[in-house]
Structures are given as structure tokens and as C-alpha cells.
Amino acid sequence: MNAMATATPVRSNSDSGLDSVASVELSVEHENININEDLDDLLNFAASEDGSIAPPPAVVNNVSPANSISPNQQQHQARRHVKVLKKIRKSAPASVSPIPAAASAQTRSSHTAILYDPTDEGNINDAHNIIRRDVWKISIATVKHRFAKEGTIVLGCRFCEHIPEGERVHQSEVAPESIAGIYRSYLRFNSKHFSKCPEIPDELRAKHERLRNGKGTGGRGTKKYWETSALMKGMRDASDRKGIVFCEEATY
Q1: So which domain of life are we looking at (predicted)?
Q2: Pair 185, 220 in one domain
Q3: What's the predicted TM-score (pTM) here?
């Protein structure tokens, strides 16, 4: 009786090679999936500004000692991870919350309560800075102002503002008709009010006189600088009436 031969499938070299390639492709595909998942976690974490998303956990693959990376390589990979995270954060668009109109007006007012600005130092005569910094206070004209259009800028003496208007020394408030007229308003205020107002401290007036006579420092206070500094503070000539207004789009 002939023994029945059992057919055993024989794998050719070519079949073995295909299986190896398929195995490698599967391994690569699996690694790619893991990489994409890790990258998604990293992107979600980087985009989270409120910290609601926890950072992706560190994944340690089980590798044989022969394939393990050296400490130097681990440090290099860690540095690359940090660089990628910083790059993602830097490229992410920053969210900007709009400032309410009331808050915007309050901010603008705090920046422009006085005409003086630190950049005046060295660019304008110190005597002029006394008026711009220590005496003048910027306010906005209302319907009660007879000499200024409503909504335009008024420059007034801070020392006598508490006194009823009819009891103040003349020219306690001036309303320049244009930015070019601010310097002329200073000259008028200085001669008509500053030199005579009893509410202004005598020592301040004496200091102004001393500096005005050439013993101060800084520039000569040219009319051009007065115009430039006003523009830098967001002031503009009113388009529909005489006077100066604040430009809503100005930045300072």
C-alpha cells in the first residue's frame, strides 16, 4: 500500500520576499498612524490657550536593547519636540478681544489728560513744559462752552477749574481752532491768565519765568513740534467745524 503523500505548501523565495515587504509596509503604516495621532495631540495641546487640554502623554515604545537609542539621542529628540511645540505656538493666530467703546474712551482720556508727553524732554523749552505738564488740563467742550464747539478740545487751567467761570481770571480756558493754533493759544494763555491767576503757585510761576528767560534746557519749542506732538497724541483738526478732536483710530 502506497503511503499517501501530504502536500506541504512550499514558499518560494519570491513569496517570502513579498511577505517581508508586506510586513514592513504594515509596520510603517502603523508607525505613521501613531505619529499622526501624536501630532494631532500635540497640535490640540499647542492650540489650547486656557490649559483645558492636557499635554500629550509621553509614549515609550517597547524596543529591544539592541535597538534602544542612546541618552544623547533621547536629549536630541526631546529638544526637537520642544522646538516643534514652540513653533506651533508661535504660528498659531492670537485671539484678540475687542475693546468696548466705553473702555476705549477711558483709555484715550487717561493718555491725553495733559498735553505734555515724556518725548517733549529735549525737544521743547522747559518753560513750555510747565504749562503743558503742570498747568493745562485737557477737557472736551460741552454745550455749556460758549467759546468752543461741542466735542472739541479745551485747554484749561487746572488750578482754578473749581472756581465758577465768571470769577476766574480771563482766558482760564482756551480752545484752539486747529492744531496749528495750539502754540498761539499757549502764548495767549501765558500772557492773559498764567501771569495773573492767583490760584497758580507763585513758585511755579517764578520757575516758568526763569526758564523762559533762557536758563532752562531743551529746544526752543518750535510751532512745528507743538503740531507734531499733538498729532502723535491722536488729535486731529475737526472736519466739520473749527476746533480739534480726537481721532478714534489714532494709536499712542
Answers
A1: Eukaryota
A2: yes
A3: 0.53
